[in-house]
Input
Amino acid sequence: MSELGLFWLLLPVVAAASWYFARRGTEMVSGARVDRLSSGYFKGLSHLLNEEPDKAIEVFLSIAELDQEAVETQLALGSLFRRRGEVGRAIRLHQDLLKRDTLSRRQRTDALFELGEDYMRAGLLDRAEGLFADLVAAEVEVAEALRRLVTIAESERDWNKAIAHAERLEQVSGRPQGSTVAHYRCELAEGARGRGHLEVARDELQQALRADPNCARAELLLGAIELHQGEHARAARALERAARIDLDTLPLLLEPLLACYQALDDGRRAREFLAEMGARFPGVAPVLALSRLIEREEGEAAAEAMLTKELRRHPTVPGLRHLAQIGLRRADESMRPLLAGIAELAERMLDQGAGYRCKRCGFGARNHHWQCPSCKGWDTLRPQHRLLAE
Output
């Protein structure tokens, strides 16, 4: 949370404090103390709005010293400590706050959550997990506690635990978690596949598709397993389903899918699929794949003619690079330096671009990730359909 975000966090505290001070102003012996507390809140907020967090912390510390019972101020101060990286101070403050016997149920819950956030920020995931698990067991803010437990399980890559928490979260909140659970199942399948346990992997992927029938990742992984086992027809069907579920998976599956078509000696089906994808997919990947297929079946001249026609309609850097590479194999010696220079320049341009970008946080990556390394969203990285695409 930013300092401006903390302004909105503290605004209700200020409003309540102003009412409290106005109501009790004639009852309290020390009018100066009331004035100092009331003006202190606004002074601290002023520092936050002026991007002076260090001065704001000093003000709120002085307020906390004057009014030890201001729980909301203590919570806001601890949150500010944590967001500024002073996690140790935040932990001590929230631990001390929880020692009070006068806290209401709401205040104690808020303090426990803040302490759990402190532990997570400090990397003390076992402590955070125990705290949030206790809240779930006590049936206090169950949905929010479960969301933290899901995050912790993801951080520890404990996918079975993440599945259990996510499924419980769906029951409690009523919000579907099938898409997320399917990715957890895919992670388990990837692990099993890496250990050579293909049947275990296949079972996990079937469960992923039960959780989310539109999980393109599960279909893609099933296709890879079928291809590994030499089941080219089954592999092709799974990979085709993945592409039709989510067009943006096309760059990931074209190479194995074309290998399936080649093994099946089914050039007609390959051309039909690539033509379908070329009409629907906004990038150049199916066009390049079709040019390679034409080159293999009809020769370089036919591939060059087809690609030149497509690039006149939709010019792209990857297409230009591929066209230059075809030309290098066919051109005479006088043209080779020029074509080599064009291919090299296109390669350098591609090296400078992000092939994928997260639709949620904007993180850019050269390669595909199923989980965004920045915001941790699942299946949020999308290929960039620009001149520097794919």
